[in-house]
Hints:
Layout: H1 5-9, H2 25-34, E1 39-43, H3 44-53, E2 61-65, E3 78-83, E4 93-97, E5 110-111, E6 115-120, E7 133-139, H4 150-156, E8 157-159, E9 173-183, E10 189-194, E11 198-201, E12 204-207, H5 208-215, E13 221-229, E14 233-240
Parallel strand pairs: 1-2, 2-3
Antiparallel strand pairs: 3-4, 4-5, 6-7, 7-9, 8-9, 9-10, 11-12, 13-14
Amino acid sequence: IEDMYPVLTLGGSFHIMPTEIRKDLAAIREFLFEHQITGGGYSTAIAALLLNTYDDLPVRFITAGGEKLDGVYSDHIEIINVYGPTECTDDTSYYKIAPGKRIDNIPIGKSVANNYNFIVDPQGRLLPQGIPGELCFAGIQVGRGYWQLPERTAQAFCDCPFVKNDAYGRPVRMYHTGDLARYNADGQLEYLGRIDFQVKLRGYRIELGEIESRAAQFPGIQQVVAEVYKGQTLCLYYTVFDGKT
């Protein structure tokens, strides 16, 4: 929705990239030139590859979202780092990197309009600027909960204790993201990782514990540990019975 309607309401053209070229950088570049595309949204991995592979892309801006953005630069393209969980439909904060600007630790920015970001401690109390804690998002974008999962919904969703009511007098919903973050010296949010064992790989949320639990059910498996190796590859380490134990 956010990619389509702003473009269409301003009289622009919206192009959906064919599935067969979405992992082919050269084909993506050719598609951009062929259709005279001036901007677009990509997963973080694809956006980073495009920016770091080609210095002649014809676009004015690129949005990247799905996981932490690092090591990107362009002298003529505005890079927009977006963040947001599916439970909050969908981007909740953004940070713009102007053309020609290099940033070592790219923030996830500030909240989108009419919504709020809070950093809280394990007891749900607000933390001051610079102190890491769980990132919570509150506002009209927050979903109602997980379908037919009342216990999980109760853990992650609640009425916001910091903003009591919206403009119509309704309680403001808040979502506990499970992400570790802080406000930096410039008042921008920085993503620091997870407070649990969930990881993100190429935009997908992965529960390492679920992988370990499933792997342990295979005959002969004794111990298992799952992790993401060098931020690139999902790996499972395991030991097996020797047949006599």
